[in-house]
Amino acid sequence: MAKIIINQTRCKGCYLCMNFCPKKIIGVSDKLNEAGYYPCEAKDEGKCTGCASCANICPDCAIEIYK
Ligand code: SF4
Ligand code: SF4
User: Fold this and answer.
1) Which ligand 1 atom minimizes the distance to the CA of 7?
2) Atom 2, ligand 2: residue with shortest CA distance
3) How far apart are the C-alpha atoms of 32 and 19, rounded to whole Å?
4) Cβ-Cβ contacts under 8 Å for 23 (sequence gap 6 or more)
5) pLDDT of the residue at 59
6) Which of 8, 10, 14, 24 to mutate to test the pocket of ligand 1 (most atoms within 8 A of CB)?
7) Is the dihedral of CA 41, 44, 49, 50 positive or negative?
8) Is the CB of 3 under 6 A from ligand 2?
9) Stretches in the chain below the pLDDT threshold 70
10) Which atom of ligand 1 is nearest to the CA of 26?
């Protein structure tokens, strides 16, 4: 099982990671961050394979994956 950590302060809500996750487990938080964006969050972390597509595509390096 993989661990996904999303830095919600750094996230600017572009949602590229959501579109690139093959398992579709990344969703949008219902709480605004300090910059005024709705950051993404892992909705079903147990299904994460640790492929790191989300982390690689994030333009703000806001995602860390640990296997
Ligand atoms: S790709 Fe990065 S900046 Fe864009 S929504 Fe995902 S975590 Fe946030
Ligand atoms: S590591 Fe892969 S499976 Fe896990 S959240 Fe990121 S894109 Fe999805």
Assistant:
1) 7
2) 51
3) 20
4) 44, 47, 48, 49
5) 98
6) 14
7) positive
8) no
9) none
10) 6
C-alpha–C-alpha distance, residues 62 and 54, integer Å: 9
The per-residue pLDDT for 1 is: 80
**Which pLDDT value is given to residue 20?**
97
C-alpha 9 – ligand 1 centre gap (Å): 10
Question: Which domains are seen in the chain, by residue range?
Answer: 3-66 (3.30.70.20)
Does the CB atom of residue 16 touch ligand 2 within 6 A? no
For residue 4, the number of C-alpha atoms closer than 13 Å in the C-beta half-sphere is 27
